[in-house]
Amino acid sequence: MERTIDVKVDLKEQRRRAADGFRKSMSEHGTYVVRLLSSPGAGKTTLLQKTAENLGRDFRVGILVGDVETERDAERLAPFAPSHQITTGGACHLELPLIERALPELGAGPFDFLFVEDIGNLICPASHDLGEHLRVVLLSATEGDDKPGKYPKAFRSSDVVVISKTDLLPYVPFSVEKAQQDAKLVQSQLRFFSVSAMNDDGIAEWCDFLREQRKAQEAFAESSEAVGR
Ligand SMILES: Nc1nc2c(ncn2[C@@H]2O[C@H](COP(=O)(O)OP(=O)(O)OP(=O)(O)O)[C@@H](O)[C@H]2O)c(=O)[nH]1
Ligand SMILES: [Mg+2]
Question: How far is the CA of 47 from the centre of ligand 1 (A)?
């Protein structure tokens, strides 16, 4: 039997406000939050290793990484930046309270960049705002160039698409152009990067973009503060 329970609370609105509050608080601390989504194994942790290595020369970088089980990704990231694993024990996506609880585990902040690697899944994470400034979806060359249209929410809700594992392009039937066209049909404003963590192709461009985005966010936060004064 179906029953409707009127809880008189708009949970979606509550979550939206919490995410906006987290984003604002991170901006006030000068922390630029970048979240990575993808299907399992698309290369999120490997890209974060390279990114933390590059940005870590000039910035304080912290990383929170989600998985259903094991500390493996945090162990891989630890040599590059303070990293903490969030294990959900079964849940298919991260939620903001998990991020807020895990943040102190990274130790002394605030950070210039906080990276959040969500659980490998192109469906559930797309429905949750974790208070990030930039949402990035990875699509690896081995997954097929038809995925944006098949998993539209992940691409519609993201700001950037990173096509990963480009060193494998000569060996797999994947057209970067087709993947970009498919993604643009879902969301015309998407920005694209192509990277290989194996031969470092595109890594410097990707990291320069993150530097610029952080700077723009910082300028925006300062001007909003001045207007609010
Ligand atoms: N050839 C190639 N392999 C890569 C590249 N990036 C990652 N890999 C390999 O792809 C596999 C998965 O990479 P991960 O970085 O663990 O992927 P992930 O998205 O973090 O995986 P989950 O956290 O399990 O969802 C590993 O064996 C990596 O070595 C790349 O640029 N080129
Ligand atoms: Mg990973």
Answer: 8
